[in-house]
Specification:
It is built from seven helices and 15 strands. By secondary structure, the chain is α/β, with parallel strands linked by helices. It has two domains: about 35 residues, no CATH class; about 180 residues, Glucose Oxidase, domain 1.
């Protein structure tokens, strides 16, 4: 078998000369994987466990060990570790599919895998959120990002960085309630979301807080912004973390989650591949 040696972006790869996966016009998927393997990976996902911050209407997680490592002759020759998890779909860093709010739209299992590998746009407003916990991301601020970095690509995953995740896992700090019980944390604005989904045609969006809507609105049971996002038949990811370790432009987002049939949501595993 003849071997062809190829130099691509500083990575030396050896592939069979007859390989149908290789074209002179573009790198093979294996070559792309080798390139990506040498990049830096940033986990955008919180660990989840009982007691983590959550929407106040949801019950806590219950976890039970049903098998431990000691030998169990009634089940098999060697011991093993297995747990039973009971939690809501919207638990920890999680996906909200359109059906979470909009009856008849897509459930978790109906989200196409092509929607899980996306250009990652990070709009960094952590300074603004530090000065004003009620900060909302405006259309003008999104356009400023584009002035600095170029047009937001169609099909992108757009994440709002507020550094609110640094308050994790303290639920009280995440909610940031005042003496009247009103929460104060940042959120999106409708003009910004409409610009992203309707004009820039993004695939999904995400944030570090428990809600799309700012805390003041959520305290009044106003979830109109989350309703808007999901009504477009797109998904969102809540409770992201480590966005401070990702550039504002140029990274790739990988967003994955299990496939419960007809699922209303589920914990997600999101990470970034950084140039």
């Amino acid at each position: 078998m003849r071997i062809k040696k190829t130099l691509f972006l500083g990575v030396v790869l050896f592939i069979p000369a007859f390989s149908s996966a290789w074209s002179a016009d573009e790198p093979s998927l294996w070559q792309i994987q080798q390139i990506l393997a040498h990049k830096r990976y940033v986990d955008l996902t919180h660990e989840f466990a009982p007691g983590i911050p959550r929407w106040p209407g949801f019950p806590d997680e219950v976890r039970k060990t049903i098998y431990w490592y000691e030998k169990r002759p009634d089940v098999m020759g060697t011991g093993f570790f297995s747990e039973l998890y009971t939690h809501v779909g919207q638990w920890g860093t999680h996906v909200d599919p359109p059906a979470h709010f909009i009856k008849g739209l897509r459930t978790v299992d109906q989200i196409d895998p092509k929607e899980m590998v996306l250009p990652l746009v990070v709009i960094d407003v952590h300074d603004e959120a530090a000065k004003n916990p009620d900060y909302t991301l405006s259309r003008e601020r999104v356009k400023k990002w584009e002035k600095d970095h170029g047009p937001i690509p169609a099909g992108a995953f757009v994440a709002m960085r507020t550094d609110w995740s640094k308050r994790w896992p303290d639920a009280a700090k995440m909610e940031n309630k005042d003496a009247n019980g009103i929460a104060h944390y940042p959120g999106w604005s409708l003009p910004a979301l409409k610009y992203l989904y309707e004009e820039r045609k993004i695939t999904a969006s995400g944030h570090e807080t428990t809600d799309t809507d700012p805390g003041i609105a959520a305290s009044k049971d106003d979830y109109s912004l989350e309703t808007y996002v999901l009504s477009t038949n797109h998904y969102q990811i809540e409770l992201l973390t480590n966005l401070d370790q990702v550039p504002e432009a140029g990274a790739i987002a990988i967003v994955s989650f299990p496939k419960p049939k007809g699922g209303s949501g589920f914990p997600a595993r999101a990470f970034a591949i950084v140039p």
